[in-house]
Design brief:
By secondary structure, the protein is an alpha+beta fold. The chain is built from 9 helices and 4 strands.
Length: 187
Amino acid sequence: MTSGCIRAMPEPPTSISFQLKSAYRQLMRFARRPNVSTADIHNWYTYVMPTRLKHRVRCFTGKVSYAGLHLDRVELRFYHAHQIHPTLTDVVELHLTLENPDPGDFMRAMSQCGRVHIITAREYHDAEIHDLNFDEDGIVLVDWRSILPTAQVRFWAEMLHGQVANSRAFSPPFHRGGDNDETVDPA
């Protein structure tokens, strides 16, 4: 006879939740080291956090730059709808002061900041120079559903396939299936 208690099964190491918690523990160990700066935390995200995990967290918003649609052979970039580096820094700085920080804060921040638009390299460069304001900078974002299927094929093949967690939702009908479509659910 059992005691009536159900033992929780551990998360599989392949789950996104498990991997994000692991990345969080790694980041916090790094952040607690002496002389670690804000720039070091940014570099951790950019260069240390596993690319495969970033691809599982990154989700396309369904917004594409009008210029990217209408210029042939233009270089495209992902633009994070919410800036990852300041958000990550805020979470880390707060968690360094807490006795029992909640990794869920990091997971929610990664989910929120993982949302990306597709814009041109020129627009991205301008955003790097100064705070990007889509209205003031004349950048028009177009909804995916209003884009011609031929353009959707181009964006999906060049930018979305294998690069964002939700690529299947935006794939042309003849490309559906075969992608890992797991998105972050920090609940």
